[in-house]
Amino acid sequence: MTTxxxxxxxxxxxxxxxxxxxxxxSVIAYNxxxxxxxxxxxxxxxxxxxxxxxxxxxxxxxxxxxxxNTLLEVFYGAGGIMDGIQAGMTVIDCSTVSPETSKQLxxxxxxxxxxxxxxxxxxxxxxxxxxxxxxxxGGDEAALEKNRAIFEAMGRKIKYMGPSxxxxxxxxxxxxxxxxxxxxxxxxxxIAAKAGIDPESFLEIVSSGAANSRQLELKxxxxxxxxxxxxxxxxxxxxxxxxxxxxxxQLRTPMPALDTVRNVFQIAEAQGLGELDLSSxxxxxxxxxxxxxxKAEASSQLELELDQTxxxxxxxxxxxxxxxxxxxxxVHQWEQEGxxxxxxxxxxxVDISNQGLQIATSFPLSKDMFVVFHFPQEAELxxxxxxxxxxxxxxxxxxxxxxxxxxxxxxxxxLEEYIQRKxxxxxxxxx
Length: 431
Ligand code: NAP
Hints:
Layout: E1 3-7, H1 13-22, E2 26-30, H2 35-38, E3 46-47, H3 51-56, E4 60-63, H4 68-76, E5 90-93, H5 99-110, E6 115-118, E7 121-122, H6 125-130, E8 133-138, H7 141-146, H8 148-154, E9 155-162, H9 166-194, H10 199-207, H11 214-224, H12 234-250, H13 256-273, H14 281-289, H15 296-308, H16 310-318, E10 321-336, E11 339-352, E12 356-361, E13 370-374, E14 384-393, E15 398-404, H17 409-430
Parallel strand pairs: 1-2, 1-4, 2-3, 4-5, 5-6, 8-9
Antiparallel strand pairs: 7-8, 10-11, 10-13, 11-12, 12-15, 13-14, 14-15
Helix pairs in contact: 9-12, 9-13, 9-14, 10-11, 12-13
The site of NADP nicotinamide-adenine-dinucleotide phosphate has 27 residues, from helix 4, strand 7 and helix 12.
């Protein structure tokens, strides 16, 4: 039985490794966060404390890691893959990294008589779970053929692209389209919603014509449900667009659409959307247009729910819960068309309600600026974006009233829970 060391059990790696287990491979798994490895144990996987320990007993190594730096750290760091490799092995890297890194590892491993394939994938978390990923493979074709059964356990389409690095080149070209399609979908949705078109009707029409894309088919249901939970994080998409831009520069190929879209993703990342799904890019467009993209039926359902809980909600909304702690605030401002500046400042959170929050700082800001709040860890809240709508100048500082914007429903629920906890704590202290 072929033994596979699987290194990197993130959104993609965990279901991919699970499919290897289910297809009869003996899997030894390593992940930086050890708890994720435990999820594979019921499927028969063995666990390893370091990458080298996982690799030592294996015939084949599969890596599925975030980016170039992580991959190189896991190869060359203490207890890394290089400490466990043996002649005759094959290493299959499925991460999206630069072609230079792929070629560097190919050459290095060749000296140890180890084959290296760059084999990035398309198809997001659902395809990783159903074992229907597409692999684009660079390296020696013989190494691919020798290990075809491993690929077939995780994917449906396995395509040999050419010599080492060809898989990574292909992946960056592919993700250029994914990024542009995502931004195109969000931009179209934003303008349609602002013009009063029901988003569901918009997506129905677009998906039946030339403007359709696989990305739209994959993300439309999530967007209509306003479910921005991660399938492919916005942070990783931004990384891919950065790599693709670098490739464009190396190959002296102008890529103006890519560069614009990369900037939009970078703004979204700076606003704290990095850990959410890339479809959360829509919330950035919502801030710009001032209109939330919501399906008609959802808004009427929402109105109904709001009516039902109006009294309760109004009561809670009217409560401004006093706070008194320092928050880090990222300030963002358009300078001119296409240009954008940002900086970090310190401020005090004065009070908070369901609608907005008030901060105090000596730093002068102006109306309509966007600010991103980083809450203390105990709040368990992601960064939240607000727009300055009110300014009060006091003796030594300014107080800014900020309206929260683009807060996904589940974050709003967590925020409400946090406010309720604070109300309870304050009432308890009075008693
Ligand atoms: P992910 O959920 O963020 O997982 C990243 C993995 O890398 C985790 O196992 C993480 O360990 C590990 N890692 C990160 N930093 C590390 C470090 N310093 N040392 C050791 N391990 C580290 O990412 P993913 O969505 O699975 O994506 C993995 C790769 O596939 C990326 O290159 C991505 O661009 C590409 N990709 C993703 C998709 C998608 O839809 N998600 C589709 C195609 C390609 P922890 O668990 O400890 O954080």
